[in-house]
Amino acid sequence: MTEPRKPRRPSFREPAALEALGERSDPIAQLHAAHETAAVLLHTGRAATDPAVTQRLVEIVDDIGLPTLADLWASRPARTLPGALWRLYLLREWMRTSPADAAREYAYGVPFTEPNHAVAGVDPPGPDEIAAVANEILRGAFTGDFAVALERAAAFCRVVVAGRAYASEGSETLLSATRLRDMADDLAASANLWRSGHLQ
Description:
Layout: H1 15-20, H2 27-47, H3 51-58, H4 60-64, H5 66-74, H6 81-97, H7 99-109, H8 114-120, H9 127-143, H10 146-166, H11 171-195
Helix pairs in contact: 3-9, 5-6, 6-7, 6-9, 6-11, 7-9, 7-10, 8-10, 9-10, 10-11
């Protein structure tokens, strides 16, 4: 008669070993990585005195790709530092890759929300101006008041939301307008959190 086998103690595996097995790495480590990289990137940008460094940070998505940044930051809550930076980069990407669409929707929205148009600062609302403002907003996050950059992005979103509502051609357009309105609310809330020292 054989003795019953003793239960094995679970073995500890390093995150790299889990990755090799196709298992997810430690979610706590991912959370820390998201917040630390966002803080380092913002600090580096705000401490930089070389315009070339600032430009490289503005264009970081052009180098590493939006999916890489999404893997790092997109899962974090909207009203956190990585969540806010993710939305700034995501907005810039849309403004730069679809400037004609963005300009058309923005122009439709201007008559309905002049105060937000004044804050966003797209004048005249053409494709070239949209692409330029996309970079200006993100550059302002590094060289100026971060809260103002967030508010400017929020204002831009609100003008586009008004334009989409005006020119709505179906429920899909309205749904995308609702998502963009939520982004605007999150960016504005993040600006308030930054000013109070609670955006982390």
